[in-house]
Design a protein that fits this description.
Blueprint (H helix, E strand, L loop, with lengths): L1 H9 L8 E5 L2 H11 L3 E5 L14 H9 L2 E4 L9 H5 L4 E4 L29 H18 L4 H27 L6 E3 L5 H6 L6 E2 L10 H14 L3 E4 L5 H8 L5 E4 L16 H13 L8
Helix pairs in contact: 1-3, 2-5, 2-6, 5-6, 6-10
Length: 291
């Protein structure tokens, strides 16, 4: 059965009236839903309880890939297990990391996937608009009858992102952000766009356990830098966080760069609300209450 589904992935997609888009992670799903609206269908592969680095591909995921007109993913440094599969496919594959005009940032060191590029590019609102434009263009080429619909949806989406960006800017423009720490370096796109800078990170690679020496260095950094807030991932190991903190007391907040937690109660699955939710968590660290 799996062989049949996989072979379907390599075959040309059957023409349909509406566009079918398969995305890998929820932020890309939100972008695709905003562009397609009622003129297509969107599915996503990485589920809320999975890592974008180590997710497993189910038979239903393979079926979604096989029937998709467009596959939208970040790139091999994030969803590495899809690389060979997508390279052999004949469908339209949009690789976000390769799009022209993106703002890209480097990590301090190479990840264990062999790349120093930071893949969390969807946390920069300008990058989001580039991804949305590329998707609207590709959808319009495959479905010219609805090209104007995709263009109008793109314009509406762009306006919502621009408004959210302006709102976030006001949150951080009046006063400096106090020192804060992050579980790992996942937010530099948002930080650099809005003039923020974390003072330290608990782990350099969330997929690798820190050594005893790294634990002691982290504890010393807390005592030296005195950050006021710590932003942790939803899947962060609570025992490891406690070990790294030692006796240091700090306010913590869970922030999900993949959007599964921050958008769980949203009715509209709105990307602007996703960005606002993450920025609001950072704003909560300010002495003044969050907006």
């Amino acid at each position: 059965m799996l062989l049949v589904l996989f072979s379907g992935l390599l075959a040309p997609a059957i023409a349909r009236a509406d566009i079918s888009v398969t995305t890998t992670i929820r932020p890309l799903q939100l972008i695709a839903e905003a562009v397609l609206q009622d003129s297509g269908e969107v599915s996503t592969i990485v589920k809320a309880n999975q890592s974008a680095h180590q997710f497993s591909i189910s038979p239903s995921d393979r079926f979604a890939l096989a029937r998709a007109d467009i596959v939208l993913w970040i790139g091999p440094m994030l969803e590495s297990q899809l690389s060979s599969m997508l390279q052999q496919s004949s469908m339209t594959v949009l690789t976000a990391i390769e799009m022209q005009g993106l703002t890209l940032h480097e990590l301090d060191e190479e990840s264990h996937f062999g790349s120093s590029l930071d893949a969390h590019l969807w946390l920069d609102s300008d990058n989001v608009l580039i991804i949305a434009r590329e998707l609207a263009r590709a959808a319009g080429e495959l479905d010219p009858d609805n090209a104007s619909v995709y263009a109008n949806n793109l314009q509406t989406f762009g306006a919502s992102i621009t408004e959210a960006t302006a709102t976030i800017s006001t949150w951080f423009s009046d006063q400096p952000m106090p020192g804060f720490a992050v579980y790992h370096n996942a937010y530099q796109y948002l930080e650099k766009q809005f003039g923020l800078q974390h003072s330290m990170e608990l782990v350099h690679d969330p997929e690798t356990q820190p050594s005893i020496q790294q634990i002691m260095e982290t504890r010393n950094s807390f005592e030296e830098l005195q950050p006021q807030c710590l932003f942790i991932d939803p899947d962060a190991n609570a025992d490891l966080v406690a070990t790294l903190l030692g006796d240091y007391s700090i306010a913590t907040s869970t922030v999900d760069p993949l959007g599964y937690v921050s958008t769980a109660d949203q009715q509209g699955n709105d990307y602007a609300e996703f960005l606002l939710g993450i920025a609001r968590a950072f704003s909560n660290c300010l002495p003044v209450a969050a907006r």
